[in-house]
């Protein structure tokens, strides 16, 4: 996506690391569910659900890659867009989208009614908004400084570590394929770091 939007060239090693990262992460996530690799599951009615889920995941990855590279392109053009301007624009669009949705469904006042009737909800909303804003600043700073590829690697690593820590904390068993996928993922991450460092030096 970076090649299409920003005309950025990538080396052969980066393409290999990207494929390894996608394969390792997919293997790790899918092999945690033993039903996924059960041959009977693909012959049952779950086939439609699996196919639609794969299509939705592909669409998510496609639009996510487009968003990251488009934001990086906006950071690089003149006049430059700051991370705070980017955050303001995204949040204004989200607010308008939510407002239009609530008006169209006739539920504009229901959030305020919920706020009045539930004690402590306002505090939770404020804390959630603060942490969300700090997270957005960190996201845009990472994209602006290091680019969308490094950010995508960081998000993949965060997701895998979350699942791994959850499996350890709650005693969920991990299959050999999960461990193999985890090893491939970490190898791809370190390979990406190495190729980036080698290219800049």
Automatic annotation (TrEMBL):
<keyword id="KW-0472">Membrane</keyword>
<keyword id="KW-0812">Transmembrane</keyword>
<feature type="transmembrane region" description="Helical">
    <location>
        <begin position="88"/>
        <end position="105"/>
    </location>
</feature>
<dbReference type="GO" id="GO:0005789">
    <property type="term" value="C:endoplasmic reticulum membrane"/>
</dbReference>
<feature type="transmembrane region" description="Helical">
    <location>
        <begin position="176"/>
        <end position="195"/>
    </location>
</feature>
<feature type="transmembrane region" description="Helical">
    <location>
        <begin position="50"/>
        <end position="68"/>
    </location>
</feature>
<feature type="transmembrane region" description="Helical">
    <location>
        <begin position="12"/>
        <end position="30"/>
    </location>
</feature>
<feature type="transmembrane region" description="Helical">
    <location>
        <begin position="125"/>
        <end position="143"/>
    </location>
</feature>
<dbReference type="GO" id="GO:0046964">
    <property type="term" value="F:3'-phosphoadenosine 5'-phosphosulfate transmembrane transporter activity"/>
</dbReference>
<dbReference type="GO" id="GO:0000139">
    <property type="term" value="C:Golgi membrane"/>
</dbReference>
<comment type="similarity">
    <text>Belongs to the nucleotide-sugar transporter family. SLC35B subfamily.</text>
</comment>
<protein>
    <recommendedName>
        <fullName>Adenosine 3'-phospho 5'-phosphosulfate transporter 1</fullName>
    </recommendedName>
</protein>
<dbReference type="InterPro" id="IPR013657">
    <property type="entry name" value="SCL35B1-4/HUT1"/>
</dbReference>
<keyword id="KW-1133">Transmembrane helix</keyword>
<keyword id="KW-0813">Transport</keyword>
<feature type="transmembrane region" description="Helical">
    <location>
        <begin position="150"/>
        <end position="170"/>
    </location>
</feature>
<dbReference type="Pfam" id="PF08449">
    <property type="entry name" value="UAA"/>
</dbReference>
């Amino acid at each position: 996506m970076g090649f299409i939007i920003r005309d950025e060239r990538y080396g052969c090693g980066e393409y290999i690391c990207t494929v390894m990262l996608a394969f390792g992460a997919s293997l790790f996530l899918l092999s945690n569910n033993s039903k996924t690799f059960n041959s009977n599951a693909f012959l049952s009615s779950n086939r439609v659900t699996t196919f639609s889920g794969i299509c939705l995941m592909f669409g998510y990855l496609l639009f996510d890659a487009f968003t990251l590279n488009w934001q990086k392109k906006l950071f690089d053009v003149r006049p430059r867009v700051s991370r705070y301007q980017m955050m303001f624009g995204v949040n204004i669009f989200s607010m308008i989208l939510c407002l239009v949705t609530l008006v169209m469904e006739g539920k504009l006042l229901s959030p305020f009614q919920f706020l009045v009737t539930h004690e402590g909800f306002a505090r939770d909303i404020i804390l959630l908004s603060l942490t969300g804003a700090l997270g957005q600043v960190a996201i845009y700073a990472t994209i602006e400084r290091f680019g969308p590829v490094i950010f995508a690697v960081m998000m993949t690593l965060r997701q895998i570590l979350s699942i791994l820590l959850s499996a350890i904390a709650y005693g969920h068993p991990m299959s050999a394929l999960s461990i193999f996928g985890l090893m491939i993922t970490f190898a791809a991450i370190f390979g990406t770091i190495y190729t980036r460092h080698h290219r800049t030096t």
